[in-house]
Amino acid sequence: MSGTLCLLVIGPHPDDCSIKAGGIAAKYVEAGHDVTFLSATDGSAGHHEMGPQKLAARRKRETEAVAETLGVEYQVFNIRDGALEPTLANRRRFIRFIREVDPDLVLGPRPNDYHPDHRYCAQLLQDAAYMLIVPNVCPNTPSLSANPVIGYVADHFQKPTPFEPDVVLDVTDVEERKIDALHCHESQMYEWLPYTFGELEAVPEGDAERREWLANDGLSHLVANTEMNVADRFREGLADRYGAEAGMQVEHAEAVEISEYGAPLTDETAETLFFF
Ligand SMILES: [Zn+2]
After folding, report:
1. Distance, CA 142 to ligand 1 centroid (Å)?
2. Is residue 273 part of a domain?
3. CA 49 to ligand 1 center in whole angstroms
4. What is the domain-level CATH number for residue 22?
5. Which residue range(s) make up the domain with 25?
6. pLDDT at 152 > cutoff 60
7. Can you give the pLDDT at residue 197?
8. Domain total for the chain?
9. pLDDT, averaged across the chain
10. For residue range 196-253, what is the model confidence (pLDDT) as tens digits?
11. Is residue 274 in some structural domain?
């Protein structure tokens, strides 16, 4: 593991990678590393006005905008939103995809989550983890010689175990890039998510006004429990990593809990993979 690194972020839906790991991805891209985002479903369910076909096409276009804005590859599986199942066929799909990307670090959700797609996406990632190196599983796609490090992105679920970060990362200096990426998820950030919170009227009209709103009230309100308070929630982790004083100054952070099913995070791999 040296030279150009490869980060793979797997999200259940088209907006999850940007929300949970947009900052880490921006840091990787800025340092010249390769980043791939994968949405395990087509995002065709989450809207109060648009039907599934139009919505899937729109969500695809939004991921293409994110790819261009962040400088990442963005793949979307043609699995219906709300219908992801931890089947053998989907496990094989995950195995093949991860092998083809051949990442040094994979980030995805934990299986404790409110949304079935999130739970099963996490399950599929866990089920694929060890099989990545087993040659007789999906033999047409060459197996990896070693497992990547696998990490979970932050969530706020408490049972059966709360998220416990191993690494808390300062992403303050790429926050604008992350907001730019989130701004591409127009149908989510300005329509569906505000709708689910009963806050549609709060969303401004103009493009610049919306981005401004998203960067301030909008985002903090919409994903209050999942993203914005990572720095405050895990201030201790930031102090450990960056020193007490610098840790206190961090405004925006993203956190990773290392999965036991991937390669272990040694001091050396930690320094390489989490270089910022
Ligand atoms: Zn989601």
Report:
1. 30
2. no
3. 18
4. 3.40.50.10320
5. 6-267
6. yes
7. 86
8. 1
9. 94
10. 888 899 999 999 999 999 988 776 666 554 555 899 999 999 999 999 999 999 999 9
11. no
User: Residue 63 Cα, ligand 1 centroid: separation in angstroms?
Assistant: 14
| Residues 76-126 pLDDT 10s | 999 999 999 999 999 999 999 999 999 999 999 999 999 999 999 999 999
Q: DSSP readout, the chain?
A: --SS-EEEEEESSTTHHHHHHHHHHHHHHHTT-EEEEEESS---S--SSS-HHHHHHHHHHHHHHHHHHHT-EEEE----TT-----HHHHHHHHHHHHHH--SEEEE--S--SSHHHHHHHHHHHHHHHHTT-TTSSTTSPPPSSPPEEEEEP----SS-----SEEEE-GGGHHHHHHHHHH-HHIIIIIHHHHTT-GGGS-SSHHHHHHHIIIIIHHHHTIIIIITHHHHTHHHHHHHH-HHHHHH---EEEEEE-TTS----HHHHHHHS--
pTM score over 0.85 = yes
Task: For residue 119, report the distance from its CA to the centre of ligand 1, in Å.
Answer: 10
pLDDT of 38 over the 60 cut = yes
82 CA distance to ligand 1 middle (Å): 10
Flag whether 17 is in a domain.
Answer: yes
pLDDT in tens, 63-75: 999 999 999 999 9
**CA 180 to ligand 1 center in whole angstroms:** 19
